[in-house]
Design goal:
Length: about 450
């Protein structure tokens, strides 16, 4: 039986971390010969509820420091963000400085190129926009080459995901590929490619921060936190990341077969995915009776027209990336947000689309993804002008989407960042001088 441990945090996060890591250590030493430890957090953004708790990270670092090790905290935040900016805002930088851990901004490193196995493209699809190779930063490559001597700890957050169903241990490693290599794969191939990355580098153990969990996606509008954020008050950990993820998915009421990348990992023999072969220690999974929804809450502003193709529209990118950003801008910044524009996505669009948009008074908007761009991009720009019709390339380039939606909504990136313009620009300048390849909406 594969062991997965669940510990509640009712007596405090530090106490819970100590207890669950003690249990992990009973299954074998945590620290390897080099005494170097690399921790991958889920630090995709600085938005509330979207990232691994700094308190959890701090408690893990404190536990490890007693073992006289060198600790590194690493991340490559999501597209439209720079890791250096995220760490400065969400508290990771302070935790690392106070604890003596070193920060590794993976978007600022040189890279090596690897091949995706991927899922064979289907007919009538996004062929030509998929990527067969991807780049991994130097630190990740170092860990891959020295698995016997380097300790790698995976520290994701308990979140559902509006494209991958859940984002736990395996999905957390999607932060390793470079930004420019991610957007081309945010289609139906995403699930297989998440597993491709996992197959190259497996953590020594995964610890999911379940102090809270998010439903209806991984990036909940703060305005809806009362209905999208669940205080589970647990930690979930184990040596086998797939087993830990299966238990994490079960907390949300999802089975292996309902999470494509977990099923693929199991079929490839990359861990135990059968709950009957997983011994869950600390909690009874039968106590978790509710099944939550992973897709976006279907509420969008009435003054933004959303047009979906009928033949092909990948929920993994061109649909839910633009819609998740739209929800955040519209509902968390309602005092600044302006509507009166359209989003076009997918393949198989109405041939009379331009006339219908004109009739309804829509003359500007975003075309998300190459399927829609190829099909109607030129027509829309001919009708409304290039300056009023924005493109987001690839299978949705999130940085381009964010930039376009902000412009259309009458907002700027500075409306989203809770620090001064001067501080933000200074951080961006530092990151760029250090070689950051992050795609940002500026």
């Amino acid at each position: 039986m594969t062991e997965v441990f669940i510990e509640d945090t009712n007596q405090g996060i530090k106490s819970a971390i100590n207890k669950i890591l003690d249990k992990i250590e009973l299954t074998g030493p945590i620290i390897k010969s080099s005494k170097e430890v690399y921790i991958k957090v889920n630090g995709l953004d600085f938005k509330k509820h979207s990232y691994t708790s700094p308190e959890v990270l701090e408690a893990v670092i404190q536990y490890l420091k007693e073992k006289d090790v060198k600790i590194y905290v690493m991340e490559n935040s999501t597209q439209a963000n720079m890791t250096r900016v995220v760490f400065a805002i969400n508290g990771y930088k302070k935790v690392c400085e106070d604890s003596g851990a070193d920060i590794i901004y993976l978007d600022e490193e040189v890279t090596n190129t690897f091949k995706f196995k991927g899922k064979p493209p289907a007919e009538n699809d996004c062929t030509g926009y998929n990527l067969n190779t991807f780049r991994l930063p130097a630190t990740v490559v170092k860990i891959m080459k020295n698995r016997d001597s380097l300790t790698y700890i995976n520290l994701p957050k308990l979140k559902m995901h509006c494209q991958a169903r859940v984002t736990l241990g395996i999905k957390n490693q999607w932060g390793f590929p470079q930004h420019a290599d991610r957007g081309k794969d945010h289609n139906y191939n995403l699930h297989s490619k998440l597993v491709d990355v996992y197959e190259l580098i497996k953590p020594d153990f995964t610890l999911i921060d379940g102090t809270e969990g998010t439903i209806h996606g991984h990036y909940p509008p703060t305005a809806w936190e009362d209905k999208l954020v669940i205080p589970f008050k647990i930690l979930i950990a184990g040596r086998d990341t797939l087993s830990v993820d299966v238990v994490g998915a079960r907390i949300f009421g999802l089975t292996l077969n309902e999470v494509p990348h977990l099923k693929i990992a199991y079929e490839r023999g990359l861990g135990e995915g059968d709950l009957s072969n997983i011994e869950v220690i600390g909690k009874d999974l039968d106590d978790y009776k509710e099944k939550y929804e992973w897709d976006l809450l279907q509420e969008f502003p009435d003054n933004v027209k959303i047009v979906k193709g009928k033949n092909l529209l990948c929920i993994e990118g061109c649909q839910n990336n633009p819609l998740a950003a739209l929800q955040t801008f519209a509902y968390d910044h309602s005092e600044k947000f302006k509507g009166g524009w359209f989003i076009i996505m997918g393949k198989g669009l109405d041939e009379n689309l331009v006339d219908k948009l004109k009739a309804e008074g829509y003359i500007k908007g975003l075309v998300a993804g190459y399927c829609a761009i190829d099909e109607v991009g030129d027509k829309l720009r001919e009708a409304f002008g290039k300056r009023k019709v924005f493109y987001s390339g690839d299978c949705n380039n999130l940085a381009e989407t964010v930039k376009a939606e902000l412009k259309l909504a009458g907002m700027t990136v500075f409306d989203l960042v809770p620090i001064s313009t001067e501080e933000l620009m200074s951080l961006i300048d530092e990151a760029q001088k250090a070689g950051s390849t992050a795609l940002i909406p500026l």
